[in-house]
Design brief:
Rossmann fold, twelve-stranded mixed beta sheet, 10 helices, 29% helix, homoserine O-succinyltransferase activity, acyltransferase, transferase, homoserine O-acetyltransferase activity
Length: 305
């Protein structure tokens, strides 16, 4: 089954060119199926790009998903047309009246700031607390993962000497976990961050399980509450050209820009990126939807607690 998306969402036409089957609300209403409701709190500056990246991965499932996009009332995006936000996004206050089978919290370009200095931190904390009683399973990505680990479990973040930038090999620590069903012994994950969380802090917290890590990029996936929360420090959702755009955008504008590791063919930025994470990205999101959302959520969505 495809995703149910708001009519005229830009991602629909973009993904049709990739032969990914999505349907708008008008067609979806003709099917007698209880779709899984997925809420996306999109904190990234380029909203349409992030929407497309996530929809691409969520579409790789036989289940019908209905996607809702959440925005913050305490922050106005500067890089996305206001018309797009008004048409496709709803404030937390409006969506908080509903319950959702799954939720995704994206990263945000604010990782070097202390959490308490972020203008929308109070609203983020309210949303995080709400998700625990209104969502079956929540996936926190990059800054979202660091913020969730800090808010719920007091896990601090640390500045890195240089940006963690590129594609890094990750090792699943327990392949029997359903989230890793079909995974190889090693998988690749894009990273683009200036801060990190550390194994020694996470290991001090009962209920937190590190389930994947890398000798180079560190902790990559943490699971809590039997899969009701996942914290992913990298970006499995990234499109092939995302790091390329970021690298070329920052060249000449910053003095700490390095070539993304293990990314370009022959490590030559004039060559095409070598995509080595796409298969596991699709598998990860499919497993999350299947084993931690679909098989765990009640048929009556109001029973989520």
């Amino acid at each position: 089954m495809p995703l149910r998306l708001p009519d005229k969402l830009p991602a629909i036409e973009l993904l049709k060119h990739e032969n990914i089957f999505v349907m708008d609300e008008s067609r979806a209403h003709k099917q007698e199926i209880r779709p899984l409701k997925i809420c996306v709190l999109n904190l990234m500056p380029l909203k349409i790009t992030t929407e497309t990246d996530l929809v691409r991965l969520l579409s790789n499932t036989p289940l019908q998903l209905e996607v809702y996009f959440m925005k913050l009332k305490s922050h106005t995006p500067k890089n996305t047309p206001i018309e797009h936000m008004m048409m496709f996004y709803k404030d937390f206050q409006e969506l908080s009246k509903q319950k959702f089978d799954g939720m995704i919290v994206t990263g945000a370009p604010i990782e070097t700031m202390a959490y308490e200095e972020v203008e929308y931190w109070p609203e983020i904390k309210e949303i995080f607390d709400w998700a625990r009683t209104h969502v079956t399973s929540t996936l926190y990505i990059c800054w979202g993962a660091q913020a969730g680990l800090y808010h719920f479990y007091g896990v601090p973040k640390y500045p890195l000497e240089k940006k963690m930038f590129g594609i890094f090999k990750q090792k699943p620590l327990d392949l029997s976990q359903p989230i890793f069903r079909g995974f190889d012994d090693i998988f690749n994950m894009p990273h683009s961050r200036h801060t990190e969380v550390r194994r020694e802090d996470i290991e001090k917290v009962p209920g937190l399980d590190i389930i994947a890590e890398s000798p180079e990029s560190g902790v990559s996936i943490v699971m809590a509450r039997n899969g009701r929360e996942f914290f992913v420090t990298g970006h499995l959702e990234y499109a092939p050209n995302t790091l390329d755009k970021e690298y070329k955008r920052d060249m000449g504008k910053r003095d700490d820009v390095e070539l993304p590791k293990n990314y370009y063919y022959h490590d030559d930025p004039n060559e095409e990126p070598l995509v080595t994470w796409r298969a596991h990205a699709n598998l990860f999101y499919s497993n999350w939807i299947n084993y931690y959302v679909y098989q765990e959520t009640p048929y009556n969505i109001d029973e989520i607690s």
